[in-house]
Design a protein that fits this description.
Elements: H1 2-34, E1 43-44, H2 48-75, H3 82-107, E2 113-116, E3 123-128, E4 134-139, E5 144-145, E6 156-158, E7 161-163, H4 173-180, H5 184-197
Antiparallel strand pairs: 1-2, 2-3, 3-4, 5-6, 6-7
Helix pairs in contact: 2-3
Length: 199
């Protein structure tokens, strides 16, 4: 009996040791992923709907091409050699996949929405993945860099990756200063001093 009790206690200790880290990790992950759910966006990309429709259309045509070309090979004209059918089908699939990937290369930079915590010390933005799912990226002001030269389809660098914000529609003061690199407080102070200096 003593050996059985000792064995049961050992099992309990092992199970507690194994479950606790998993439980804590789960709480941490769910907190990170759900902490922005009740937040209101401070930025909304004006082309977010258009980008989604374009990606869905591109993915649909790519999937239809991949599924349809083998059917055309199997049930196509008998007079066309099988080798020619395979070459044509491969070309169609390659073009369809290439255009889908190229579209994603441009659209993955487009910021759909952005959120901010009350102290403006942490932000979260949403972009699209390859399969048109929303990807959430948390960042701080220290992670943001202003590119030294103009770039195509991007105006800010976050985690060393280019992204595109429409600065003309940003109403949040701190986010606008973060994306543009301008300190509006200093500009306002300079303008006010210029007005005071005028006779």
């Amino acid at each position: 009996m003593a050996a059985i009790n000792l064995y049961n206690r050992a099992l309990q200790r092992i199970s507690i040791t194994i479950r606790l880290p998993h439980f804590n990790t789960t709480i941490k992950r769910s907190y990170t992923s759900n902490s922005w759910n009740n937040s209101k966006p401070i930025y909304q990309g004006p082309l977010a709907t258009s980008v989604r429709l374009l990606k869905v259309f591109s993915l649909s045509t790519c999937a239809a091409t991949i599924i349809g070309t083998p059917i055309l090979i199997a049930y196509g004209k008998k007079s066309i050699p099988v080798k020619s059918k395979i070459i044509i089908a491969s070309a169609l699939i390659s073009v369809s996949v290439a255009t889908t990937v190229l579209l994603h290369w441009f659209s993955k930079r487009y910021v759909l929405q952005a959120y901010c915590n009350p102290t403006a010390s942490k932000y979260m933005m949403e972009t699209y993945t390859l399969f048109a799912r929303r990807n959430r990226i948390e960042f701080t002001p220290n992670d943001v860099k202003i590119p030294k030269a103009d770039r195509m389809f991007s105006n800010v660098i976050i985690f060393n990756k280019p992204y595109l914000f429409h600065t003309e529609v940003i109403q949040h003061r701190e986010l606008l200063m973060l994306i543009t690199g301008f300190n509006f407080s200093e500009l306002e102070q300079e303008f006010s001093n210029q007005k005071l200096d005028k006779p």
